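Running this now, will post back.
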Amino acid sequence: MNQVQAKYKLVGSPLQKVGVLLLLILFIRPDVQAEANSPALASGPDSNVPSITQQREQKKLVKGTVSDDTGELMIGATISIKGTTQGVLSDINGNYEIECTDNDILQVSYLGYTPQDIKVGNRKVIDVILTSDNVLLEEVQIIAYGTQKKLTVTGSVSSIDTKDLLKSPTSSIGNMLAGSVSGISTVQYSGQPGAEDPEIFVRGIASLDGARSQPLILVDGVERSFFRMDPNEIENITVLKDASATAVFGVRGANGVILVTTRRGKEGRTEISLSSSVGISEAMRVPEMMGSYDHAKYFNEMQLSDNPNLGPNDLRFSPYVLDMFRTNADPIMFPNTNWEDLMFKKASLQTQHNLNISGGTKDVKFFISLGYLYQDGLLKRFYESYNPNYKTTVIITGRISTLT
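Update: finished.
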């Protein structure tokens, strides 16, 4: 510090000082112009000009932690000084340290969270709390923990919205995805009402164990099944298929990731929507079964083909039994029941209805949904469910809280 002051020390008469000062202003350091009015220049040969280093803002070390709105410490959050390329990342404990000045503005960001700009001021410890950002815009594509312009997405991503889901009158959303989203294949093992959810695979089976080939399914960021949800409650379903799209999920995303975003209330006038769908389920192919008499007759013919020497009373069904089956004289002892007609129906009816109300203002947004599903089965059994859903977003003292 003393060396810098000695370098700019002005000695001599007042006229000589003014000449040297003009040279400094014009040719050497423009920031010395601020020293022209300094009392040190007019005091005498022994007075010193304040150093340029003293005129610059002093840097200090600012520390703190970064966490989310649930109190969870965030690893790898970016803390940078606005307008510069200087920045650091939070460590495994959410802590960070960065050198800055009082006038600097810290920018704190993390994928999937709303970034914050914080003025440093005279603080040396700044703890930051980031809030999650679930905003979905028409021109952006959901990609893992965030959104991106569709034209700039380089990973393999497919999506489907509510309008396309409602085109298929099926009760399971898993079956709706088959044929609607590229790269998705489903295998349905049962047609029982309420239990026809399929197994979903993204780009085929990657393991000999089918359970280990299942993709990661997240509904609003929570891992759970979405098969029995009402399609009217879903805003968008996004399928992340390749390594570049699922990298942030690590090994959990090895078999693909399915992101489900539910609907939320939007600012504007209240909208009431009512939708209904009717479908018919029937077996694609039913084998035609023979009656008791035909079965007994052909069974005897099979025995005679194996051993032509058998007599009528040596056969499995005697002539008397054959006659009783043919005449149906004793249906109790010699029944001829058509089990297909008794247990199954030719077709079954399925209906689905939904009533939802949405709207809100800048501070309060709401979405109310009531769904009804009636699903009859070919075995004269039915599955019936109600799907109420209520979501309200209220801004209280500048923070957003969601009630479900």
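The two ends are 62 Å apart (CA to CA). More later if anyone needs it.
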